[in-house]
Amino acid sequence: RAKARGRGTFCRYDQAMGSAALRRLGLEAELRDALAREQIRLVYQPVRDLAAGRVAGFEALVRWSHPGLGQVSPAEFIPLAEETGLILPLGELILRNACAAAADWPGATRLAVNLSPVQLRSAGLAALVGDALRAAGLHPRRLELEITETALLQESEEALAVLRELQAMGVSIALDDFGTGFSSLRHLTSLPVDRIKIDRSFVSEVGSRADCRAVVSSVASLARQLGLATTAEGVETAEQLRLVQAAGCTEAQGYFVSKPLALGDAVALLRQDRAQRADAA
Length: 281
Ligand code: C2E
Ligand code: MG
Ligand code: MG
Ligand code: MG
What we know:
It contains 12 helices and 9 strands. The protein has helices at residues 7-36, 74-84, 87-102, 117-121, 125-136, 149-153, 157-169, 185-190, 200-203, 210-225, 238-246, 263-280, and strands at residues 40-49, 55-66, 70-72, 110-114, 143-148, 172-178, 195-198, 229-232, 251-252. Helix 8 links the parallel strand 6 and strand 7 (195-198).
């Protein structure tokens, strides 16, 4: 028992737990409120096609600007939303808003939306996605859903069947943060996946560590032979971009390509990108 360890220990322990719980309770109520008022917005990070040199699509990333706390990171509030079940209305809001935004983008520009494993396990996900696409007038081929490798490895046959159902509708599936879980090669051939997103932890060391360079090029080459696309995440320098391209990654994402953008800036970038290509042609 904490008490038996002495008063000092007990107090520190109790205070730490108390403030974490308070922050958590407070944030939960705030999150509920923000959701009701739709005070949560999306930003869009470009993904560049390395062969064509053009913007292939955008990943929608959720942002919560809290009046008192400032920017609360999704790394903090998504797990909280998952624990409290708020991820279901939040995830639906994100999906519907992102699909509506992407419907106005020119051409076949892809929209990637992150999916929580809680959403994957919820009843009627495929129907919800279908409805969001129809309501927005977005073709299913333009939507990609990202699920982390760690999450996907824990999923049941039922959850994998939902992903196959989504794929049958034309939606593609990306394995996010690849390399941080423990995928066996067997998984790569059996999981319903169209793209591998190589985790930033490998990409950020691709210029400084030969072992990370070997991982990136091996994953890219394996993916190519399995017919999967590869995105290098977290590309921050020109050298990293050159190296992930040389390693055979098909796409790159990261601050060197662009930081996540407000919707208006994303659309402006897309127009500029297409105009440049029309000039070059
Ligand atoms: P993720 O899906 O792997 O998203 C990439 C994260 O890396 C984003 O952080 C992005 O801003 C950041 N990033 C992009 N390029 C760079 C770079 O060059 N350097 C560095 N240091 N970071 C870079 P963000 O937006 O804070 O999101 C963190 C995580 O939160 C996401 O990781 C995703 O797992 C989760 N998340 C974000 N939005 C959503 C959402 O709408 N739904 C769900 N379920 N999860 C989300
Ligand atoms: Mg992602
Ligand atoms: Mg990722
Ligand atoms: Mg990540």
